[in-house]
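Researcher: Structure prediction, please.
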Amino acid sequence: MSRLPRGVVPETVGPGQESVWDYPRPPELRPSSALVVVVLGGVEICRTTRALQVLETSHPPSWYLPREDWLEGSLRPGEGGSYCEWKGSADYLDVVSGSIVLPAAAWTYLTPSPRFAAIAGHVAVYPGRVDGCTVDGEEVRAQDGGFYGGWITSSVVGPFKGSPGSWGW
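Model: Predicted structure follows.
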């Protein structure tokens, strides 16, 4: 288990669950064959069983979905970007469905660091900004905070970075 910040008490792990406090730092990359679906405007804009998860201490998994599994026209270059000390420079993408345009609701690493080379050509989306994301039919809950893009399902327990009181973890 990782060294915990003062006052953090990990939730009890039940059968089939894992704690974000057992995730490593630096993060690790894990392939998933789960069925992942993203919906916007009532349209399924992504469906894949070839996702990659980034697992980092205190964060619910971020899911990276192969770009070729997104509906054509559902992603377009957005404004801005960010930098991750582990993955490198991210470019933001707008997510589109019909007349709905969600600015910077997704991101991608065009040239990630060597450790995360596998996420090149994959796209992560903020689950709280689209109509819904599911993993094997389970509705995803978005990680708290406007910056983080983790996906919370019943298979992962916290507490999670981004929640009230987690500043400075």
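Model: The mean pLDDT is 95.
Researcher: Thanks, that helps.
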